[in-house]
Amino acid sequence: MTGIPDKIGVYQIDGEIGRGGMGVVYRATDSSLGRTVAIKALPAHMGDNHELMARFEREAKTLAALNHANIGGIHGIESDQDRKYLILEYIDGETLADRIARGPLRVSEALDIGSRIADALAAAHDAGFVHRDLKPANVKITANGRVKVLDFGLARPEPSNRHRASSDATSTETVSHIVTTPGTILGTVQYMSPEQARGEDVDRQTDLWAFGVLLYESLTGTRPFDRGSAGECMAAIFADEPDLSALPATTPSEAVALIRRCLRKNARQRQR
User: Fold this and answer.
1) Residues 14, 80, 133, 243: which is the catalytic one?
2) Which helix (H) or strand (E) holds 112?
3) Verdict on whether the full-model pTM lies above 0.90
């Protein structure tokens, strides 16, 4: 198996189940306990990047600090031949992105999933963490309807000020994770808040923006600021208002008001 041993400690690697700019995820069997786990590894070409390794370890510590039914958990860290791996809760099911790809969700379904995601975000925020990359691809829905928020690889403690974004700079993000200097833009462009797109340090309000985009997309099947290119998308984030008339007519007025509030350009006006 390219880039990873067939076995790491007591974990027998069964196959790859996911890949992104910040990691590769494998399905594995814990031979000591007889359970299935997910193992996250940095891509092989990034293994020597100290900044990315520090972020990788920070993800582990973030997950260890969070214990919530709607957040994917962590079992520990394993080392093998100078590489480190996160041993994560294995969550079988489809992502919310996969579900939306088949069409908009029923209003009741979208609001139910949204409420569980909101609970997960509230738990992370109460613990002092900002996710910074909330999107449907980072939400799993199991066959029995459980909802899990995943991938805290970009999560950070909430800042005491807004002047430290450049300290987290890296030139190795994927195309969907745009990086500029002097500020650093971390996240997926279609779900970025205006302050995140400007490369500012962010707090929980940027997660509320992403939640608003996610809920809008769940109800309509489209993203409110999606345009033909990343640059056009960012311009829309700064200047355009979401088309709330695209929401289903049966959407409760409270949900419409919530989306409107989450997508306010001024972060302070998104307060719950």
Assistant:
1) 133
2) helix 107-126
3) no
- Which of 173, 68, 84, 170 shows the shortest CA–CA distance to 129? 68
Q: Is 133 a catalytic residue?
A: yes
Q: Which residue type does 16 have?
A: E
Q: What Rg value do the Cα atoms of the chain yield, rounded?
A: 19
| 193 in Cβ contact with 209 (< 8 Å) | yes
78 in Cβ contact with 109 (< 8 Å): no
- The whole-angstrom separation of Cα 2 and Cα 214 is 34
Amino acid at 250: T
Contacts (Cβ under 8 Å, ≥6 apart) of 111: 252, 255
- C-alpha distances in angstroms, 169 versus 18, 51, 58, 114, 185? 25, 9, 15, 31, 8
Residue with tokens 């459980």: 146
Helix (H, G, I), strand (E, B) or coil at 16: strand
Q: Tokens 């590894």 — which residue?
A: 41
Cβ proximity of 66 and 57 under 8 Å:
no
Residue 170 has pLDDT above 60, yes or no: no
Q: What are the pLDDT digits (tens) for 107-147?
A: 999 999 999 999 999 999 999 999 999 999 999 999 899 99
